[in-house]
Amino acid sequence: MDQTSIEKTVERAREILDSKGTRDERLYALCEMLRDTVAHYDWVGFYLVEPGKRELVLGPYRGAPTEHVRIRFGQGICGQAADLEKTFVVQDVTTQRNYLSCSASVRSEIVVPIMSGGEVLGELDIDSHTVAPFTDADRALLDTICEMVAPIL
Ligand code: SME
User: Fold this and answer.
1) Residues lining ligand 1, CB < 6 A?
2) Average pLDDT over the chain, rounded to whole?
3) Which residue in 29, 37, 56, 119 has the fewest CB atoms around it within 10 Å?
4) Strand partners, 47
5) Considering all CA atoms of the chain, what is the largest pairwise distance in Å, rounded to the nearest integer?
């Protein structure tokens, strides 16, 4: 992903976030756009923090259905990212012990927390069927998108 593709994708994300529709419709459209735009994004979804609880609830997503609709902080890659409030990039999921498998096809994962006022509100989770596909360009793109999404959560 070069700088121009990142900028175009961010522009498209801005259009989606500014469009009419409910929060979840816009989040779903973002998942769809990201999955269609980036070849190595096979599952794209949002997990949202249950207010007052240290638990994530599956929000809009695009990709294969997952059994992991609720994840406690600390559990799996998603729960660790929420607990530590930091991005997790796992280039090969077979190396992880604290990992929740969603499908046998998944080989790698990136989870970016969505923060506001020092608090984690949710996260953007992306699974790939490729080993080690994620670069600094993915982090830059997804950090920007998460900052853009925070105000609507
Ligand atoms: N793999 C994640 C669980 C979510 S599914 O990938 C959609 C984890 O380890 O937290």
Assistant:
1) 43, 45, 66, 68, 71, 76-79, 99-100, 102, 109, 125, 127
2) 97
3) 119
4) 58, 123
5) 42
Which ligand 1 atom is the nearest neighbour of the CA of 98? 9
Q: Which two tokens stand for residue 27?
A: 């989040």
Q: Per-residue pLDDT tens for 11-50?
A: 999 999 999 999 999 999 999 999 999 999 999 999 999 9
The ligand 1 atom at the shortest distance from the C-alpha of residue 103 is 6
How many whole angstroms separate alpha carbon 61 and alpha carbon 24?
A: 10
Q: Is 65 helix (H, G, I), strand (E, B) or coil?
A: coil
Whole-angstrom Cα distance, residue 153 to residue 140?
A: 20
Classified as helix, coil or strand, 24 is helix
CA-to-CA dists, residue 37 to 5, 42, 58, 107, 128, angstroms: 9, 10, 22, 19, 13
Name the E strands within the chain: 43-49, 55-62, 70-72, 88-90, 108-116, 119-128
- Planar angle of CA 116, 138, 16, nearest 5 degrees: 60
| Model confidence pTM above 0.85 | yes
Residues 6 or more apart whose Cβ sits within 8 Å of residue 99: 76, 77, 90, 93, 109
